[in-house]
Specification:
Layout (H helix, E strand, L loop, with lengths): L13 E3 L8 H10 L3 E9 L1 H10 L3 H13 L7 E3 L5 E4 L3 E8 L4 E6 L6 H15 L15 E7 L20 E5 L2 E2 L5 E10 L5 H16 L7
């Protein structure tokens, strides 16, 4: 099994954006200085093939869905943006999932994180190890040393929703917040998963968000490409 010892990942390259030549410089300035706004989008993801693949290989669906999401995030630099310690805007080479686990005994949740790895097998083993290690650790942040480059992912497996919104305030954050709920079966026996994403408009417009969501759908539909 892959080892996940809670230490920070190896150095993650941060690419500083040249604001003079960046095509989105005016859009970024507008949505950070004049109209600070984010937007929410909820879609339905067909997870029929991913679910069948998980059942065939005896793989847990939650870690597989996290991988499908993070694979897409790491294919789209607009969703890996942040300020560095100098206040420069840029994007990380890799983002890692910061995801929730549920404590059955007191109905609370905790955030943990696992280093992203391109290999699903390596990533999956690391997620299972982290889930087991921190399953009884209570508090909002159960696993220490979360890296600066992360994507918030949460699952609400008890309900299928048609919409979800976040009122996210405080520190400027450019990483997306992604939530998904309980999948349901259609008349054609497809499994449909509600997925919601909160986006900071300064770094991503509808085009960028649509591409990310389409990439997530692709990863679910073509899961045989990465889940052997």
């Amino acid at each position: 099994m892959a080892k996940s010892n809670g230490k920070r990942e190896e150095k993650n390259t941060f690419h500083v954006i040249d604001m003079e030549s960046w095509p989105r410089r005016e859009h970024f300035a507008y949505y950070t200085e004049k109209l600070k706004t984010g937007y929410q989008m909820t879609v339905e993801i067909d997870v029929t093939k991913l679910r069948k693949r998980c059942k065939k290989l005896i793989v847990r669906f939650y870690p597989a869905m996290i991988y499908a999401i993070m694979r897409a995030v790491n294919q789209n630099e607009a969703f890996r943006m942040a300020y560095n310690e100098k206040g420069e805007l840029g994007y990380y080479e890799v983002c890692h999932p910061s995801y929730t686990i549920f404590h059955e005994d007191d109905q609370t949740f905790s955030d943990i994180w696992t280093p992203y790895h391109e290999s699903f097998d390596v990533f999956y083993d690391a997620v299972l190890e982290d889930m087991e290690r921190y399953q009884d650790v209570k508090g909002v942040k159960a696993k220490p040393d979360r890296p600066d480059a992360f994507t918030c992912i949460s699952c609400v497996p008890w309900i299928t929703f048609r919409g979800l919104s976040h009122d996210t305030r405080g520190k400027q954050m450019f990483f997306p917040i992604i939530d998904f709920g309980k999948y349901y079966k259609t008349e054609t026996k497809s499994r449909i998963l509600p997925l919601s994403i909160y986006v900071n408009h300064a770094v991503a417009d509808g085009y960028h968000t649509a591409k990310l969501l389409n990439d997530i759908q692709y990863n679910c539909t073509h899961c045989k490409e990465w889940m052997q």
